Amino acid sequence: MNETRRDRDAEGRARNARPRDGLGRPLPYGAPGVERQPEGVVRTPAETLAEAQRLLDAGMPFHAHEVFEDAWKSGPEDERELWRGLAQLAVGLTHSARGNTAGGARLLRRGAGALAPFAGTGPYGIEVAGLSHWARELAARVESGPTVDAAAEAPRLRG
User: Fold this and answer.
1) Percentage of the chain exceeding pLDDT 90
2) Which residue, of 23, 35, 47, 92, has the greatest Cβ tally within 10 A?
3) According to the model, what pLDDT value does residue 128 have?
4) Where do runs of H (alpha helix) occur along the chain?
5) What are phi and psi of 26, to 5 degrees?
6) What's the rounded Cα separation, in Å, for the pair 12 and 106?
């Protein structure tokens, strides 16, 4: 790879082609990495939750965030904050597992706040109250400094 040129996708958009690890950190060119989530996939809410849960359970919250991001970009307007909040929880877990405790705690709390309007409805069987409690509890723990194991801390999305 020519280091002076930006990586581009098939449509010519800038896209980093470096392989990534399970937490989404870039690795050197040529290193074995974790397969990326395809972008722009339109899934049903049930498919989104199942795929995101699979990735969370595998210790890959960065990749789960990408699944939630697809849902917030392709879903109905009135559900965007739900999917964005779930994406923020996944990114918060990612940062916490990478050792960025301040950023991780901030994103976990932001995601819990974004989910608050959905607490009474529990759309698609999402355990909103439980996720919010998990996020706030994890945020408090990571602020004290310990890096967390993403797979061990994976939340349950549905009750």
Assistant:
1) 69
2) 92
3) 96
4) 45-57, 61-74, 80-98, 101-115, 128-143
5) -65, 140
6) 34
Q: Which pair of tokens denotes residue 118?
A: 């959905």
Q: What 3-state DSSP class applies to 130?
A: helix
- Give the H/E segment covering residue 122: none
Token digits of residue 18: 């470096």
**Coil vs helix vs strand at 138:** helix
First to last CA, the chain: 46
What's the pLDDT band for 1 if we cut at 50, 70, 90? very low
Least confident of 11-20, 42-51, 62-71, 147-156: 11-20
DSSP 116: G
Taking each helix axis from N to C terminus, what angle separates 80-98 and 101-115, rounded to the nearest 10 degrees?
160
